[in-house]
Amino acid sequence: MARTRLIAALILTYVAFAMLLNSVGTVILQSISSFGVTKPEASTLEGFKDITIAVVSFLTAIYLPRLGLRNALIGALLLAIAGCIVMPLIGSFGAAQFHFAMVGAAFAVAKVVVYSMIGLVTDSPRKHASLTSLIEGMFMVGVLSSYWVFSAFIDPTGLRWLNAYWVLGAITALALALLLTARVDEYRAHEGEEAAADEGPPFVAMLKLAALPLVLVFVACAFLFVLIEQGIQSWLPTFNNEVLHLPAQMSVQAASLFAACLAIGRFGAGAVMARFDWYPVLNVCLAALAALIVLVLPLADGLAPGAIHSWGDAPVAAFLFPLIGIALAPVYPTIISVMLSAMPNRQHPPLMGLVVVFSALGGTTGSIITGAIFAHLDGQTAFTLMLVPTAFLAAGLFLLRRRIALAS
Question: What is the pTM of this model?
């Protein structure tokens, strides 16, 4: 019962942060219309979130062993709740920047803690991979839910959409309540600390870990994946609005299809990975991703603004392009599970700290580059150029498989 409650707390924590973090695409769209900011200015929201994640992740590597996993997660959830209160009470673009900085700091801690706790509640690589896929799948359910929660509050005029943050705050508070009533045995997280003492302080140990060729290839893959995912996810509502000419509310709802496809892909990944080797599966996924970009984006050519009042009026590209989420979905949780299963429990927090740092940098890079191309060229070109990091990611997976084979 205690284990089930803890797993439920971890899942709901990830759902809450998914809704908060991935509201950035909706907030970009609404900030352009509500606060009158430019696209390059709006793209800075991703930076406030991800750069804060990167900075706090380094600090997490230093202080997490002193705070303890449970206490650190409690603090992260409290900070996220405070961030939810800031948005509707102040209601400005500056408040949005501050909100995403708070949420980014909280998530930097929460992600390291959640992945470290997965190793505490599972006792085999297969169970670890299964729970990882479940939690990542529920993360995408949170992303999907976020789009629909916000679309329910969007008004053509005014700031009514900010009230969605009261709902997100309540969900985060429920995750905190579950965690407060769950018991956490952190003994396994400290196993081997005597041997680790020779590696120096936690921050130094994290840097030494980052210098390993296997870890370098791994974090590069994480960086490239998040660059692709966030570049698309953050700008998909704006793409739907300006390129496909959907109304703002429908643009946000249509973007939820991408999150739904990511969720489907991650839930299905657990069953697929139980039967097949991870490397060929991920290569098939990347090939499918490239094929969808090449085949679907031309369907957005030459669309003229028109009266779109229902889903029956929407162009076919609005339904087909989000399917790339299914192809993308298995990559991230799979490479993380492969790495964590190969590492001792005591190295999970610093390894996840590195993942969070490079994921954050990848998310910021993807959003800013996509936003700049979107503003100076067009959205179709911005998304087509995702083929470049996709090719680099395929090369990274090849190197990752070779390094894992050498290390085993």
Answer: 0.72
